[in-house]
């Protein structure tokens, strides 16, 4: 028994030793020759040591405002960014760029995530271009991505959740027009989703009914600036867009229709928008569009995070998020 215990302990130590930990802080003076400390986040992403098999790269970011545009590439999987402040507002990754300045929406992002298994905890992702058109704070094209205790700040097109399975938990997302958009399979769990403009919260872009993609907002809360007269829960950026709001508090400014067809009646035959057991003054379904779905409890189960995001590898996003600080 003692030998078995020692072997188990040794195995655990080896696995732990395969992780890489580096630090980012404005007070670090080394450049690319550094291996454990860097002055910028991008430098840490580009020059960190690679972990052993099944290991992760943990980048610990000191409090501060980082005026950077980050690119987490496909050949840098299993990256974890951890803000070392008291809250996500203490570590801010920020830039200001809109579509007119950049030459299109897809060139405006402050942060681009392409590496699978990406995680972020206790950070703010921001685009400060304001109400000037499309201006993306972050684009996520990474499978098994987890964001915990994060803030996403922008106006139009704040969060481009575009590819792979993604889980956003205990976070804050702010925008005014289509500010959660793309074609990922994404679940937003226990989040605050705040509208700062008159538009749709979501613009999901599923292109066929065979795609296992869509957005699920569950156990969350929708809020808005006081002066906004009304908002929509979503509209289909592509014909088969799919969005579900479940067990979520909705404010009175949610338009009674709930959903918008993006000016195309044909979308009403293909888009799949659903609601289940929501609360608050905006949750009444009496005036909802006839083509929206009111889910049964059996239908709702398929949209729970551990089911909707499981995939062929049986990924458990809740367990993955629990490992973060």
Question: Which labels suit this protein?
Answer:
single chain; 325 residues; alpha/beta; Pectate Lyase C-like; twelve-stranded parallel beta sheet; seven-stranded parallel beta sheet; 6 helices; 32% strand; globular
Model description:
By secondary structure, this protein is an alpha/beta fold. It has a domain of 135 residues: Single-stranded right-handed beta-helix, Pectin lyase-like (Pectate Lyase C-like, 3 Solenoid). Helices cover 13% and strands 32% of the residues. The protein contains six helices and 26 strands. A twelve-stranded parallel β-sheet has the order 2-1-3-6-9-12-15-18-21-24-25-26. The chain is globular. About 3% of the residues have low confidence.
Question: What's the CATH H-level superfamily name of the domain at 176-310?
Answer: Single-stranded right-handed beta-helix, Pectin lyase-like
Quote the distance from N terminus to C terminus: 33 Å
The average pLDDT value, as a whole number, equals: 94
Round the Cα radius of gyration to an integer and report it. 20 Å
- The stretches of 5 or more residues where confidence is low (pLDDT under 50) are 5-15
Shape: globular
Q: Main β-sheet, in a few words?
A: 12 strands, parallel
